[in-house]
Specification:
The chain has two domains: about 1-80, no CATH class; about 80-129. The strands form two sheets. It has a three-stranded antiparallel sheet with strand order 4-1-6. It has helices at about 35-45, 60-80, 80-90, 100-105, 110-129; strands at about 5-10, 10-15, 20-25, 30, 45-50, 55. With about 130 residues, it is an alpha+beta fold.
Length: about 130
């Protein structure tokens, strides 16, 4: 769906080519135009599934849009794979500026796995320069 909406009751699933996620009551889908380019590319919206009895409203405030973008950003942090999670986190903060336990929690993993991802990621970037 190109246009934003908020789920009032029920459940909506956003369906993408590689990424699917739910919108529970109170969540706002900000619409593709509100998503920063890399987020919109990652979602690759194909369609939606709406549970029978679900109510949505097209009346969305600027704050709802902001919350919707934040929700999608958080989901991308959790639903992306390995090094892609780091790329999503890097759009907000450099992972090496955080304690590894904190950075790991931000991308839904443990410190040890994050250390491996960081090692792999920065080894790749050193090879390409």
């Amino acid at each position: 769906m190109e246009r934003p909406f908020t789920v009032m009751e029920g459940l909506v699933a956003i369906v993408g080519n590689e990424l699917n996620f739910p919108l529970p009551p109170g969540a706002t889908w900000p619409g593709l135009a509100a998503l920063p380019g890399r987020m919109a590319e990652r979602v690759q919206l194909v369609g939606t599934y709406i549970v029978p009895g679900t109510r949505i409203t097209p009346h969305v405030t600027p704050r709802d849009l902001e919350s919707g973008v934040a929700y999608v950003h958080g989901l991308l942090l959790l639903l992306s794979q390995g090094l892609e999670r780091l790329a999503v986190l890097e759009r907000t903060v450099h992972p090496r500026s955080l304690n590894q336990t904190v950075a790991g929690a931000m991308v839904g993993t443990v410190r040890e796995r994050l250390a491996k991802w960081l090692s792999d990621r920065y080894a790749l970037s050193r090879k390409s320069t």
